[in-house]
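Can't paste images in this forum, so I'm doing it all in text. The chain is below; anyone willing to post the predicted structure tokens underneath?
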Amino acid sequence: MKFQILCPLFGSASPTWRIIMENIRYASHEYLEELKQLADKRRGEIRSTPNNAYEGVRCFFVSPYGNDENDGLSPHKAWRTLARLNDESLIPGSVVYFERDGIWRERFRARPGVTYTAYGRGAKPRFYGSLFNAASHGEWRETEVKDIYVYSEPIRTDIGGIFFDGGIKHSVKVIPSYENGVPTIDRTYRRAFASWRELENDLDFFHDFGAPICESKTESDPGGLVYLCSKNGNPSGRFEEIEFNTRGNVIGVGGDDVTFDNLTVMYGGSHGIGGGTVKNLTVKNCVIGFIGGSIQFYRDGRVTRFGNGIELYGGCENFTIENCYVHDCYDAGITHQLSAGGENGVNHTHVVFADNLIENCVYGIEYFLGKSDNGASRVMRDIKYTGNFIRYSGCGWGNERPDSDCQAAIKGWDHRNEAYDFVIENNIFECSTWNLVHNGCERDEWGPKYSRNVFIGRRNGGLARYGANPSKQYLLNSYSVSSDIFKDNEFCYTELVPDEPDRLHLPSAPDKYQQL
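Text version of the structure:
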């Protein structure tokens, strides 16, 4: 038998996913195909959400056909660039409308109290962290090494990844690590790697910029050359679109009371939408994808990379993300977080992530709140994740991470995570390359409460790490699913992932942890 999932019901309120469940044990190929069709439907619905009208004290318009000499106060007198928008003093209560079908290869920082949304017809307005399409801008030149090409223009900010033809293919970034200045074993090639001349797999790339040792770096030349292995000829001949994820947030959040509605954000090396401590941030009806991968820092000669679709790092109050499609992020699709350390008291209050489709991220939703150094209060309160469909955690672009034992649809790590009224309900968690969820905390009673969710994974594979630190490992078996933690949820196991034979390799069990 199998359970039936009804498609979202739209009304005056935000969509809610109704789940009608029967007690099942095996997810057949047909059932997984139904889930795929549900995801396809949700993806299409989110991409095609209509324009919303907002009342503002002043309304400004930005169009790829505009002119920065205009006043920006009507569609016929729209500005053209984000640079012009960034120069304007936007007062709280203003609304900025971007014309649909437009692409802006610039970045902007949202002002306090301002709403950013779409007007016109066509695809949602697109904001790219990629500076240009490298298939048509500049040129790829052959080097003396077979199948390795160098891009003609140095890129002097770290590149997190390269995406081809809208993400149909993506690169693997090869980054050397060092011990005492000497290259050590690389995780991709399983040997020491130090030079672009050693690239050997199709679409692997080396950016001669972010590493401590770079061949082109001199006092007069800071580096920045991009080398790409292309086994099937010149990259500009193979692809119509080549996008570089350059380091930095595509959109920054510069204050409280900000709304983003009906935007597409892509190709950023850091975060798609990123901010610190803010109140009243809403992101809805947006598409965010192909985010992250840039170098965050080197420590003891080894690199750490980062990049989340939507991130608040610090405190938050009234943080809402709803009806968004978030995909292919190097780390988390969406997250609210602050690690341990510091002396500031920080709270995460009234956080709602609802009715989102999240695919191919290392973590669908990530949260954590670490301990302060001086005992200042840090508490999460009134947190709700509901109606989300999170698929293939750790797959696609998410498979770039070097650690293979952290992926999860919901990821809280083993931080302090003091939390009250933390509810995770009515979600679907479909397959992860490690655990489906990970919720550690200092006290058992601080863990989130799961109800009416559907978990789909490998039989005796990773279901959860949960409970007081160090969190315990639960496998997807009859013993675990009958525990009080998961008793109000439904579970399926699968041996087959339709249409994904080479992308998803589910472990039989996370054997580094004790089986419960």
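The radius of gyration is 23 Å. Confidence is low (pLDDT under 50) at residues 1-24, 497-516.
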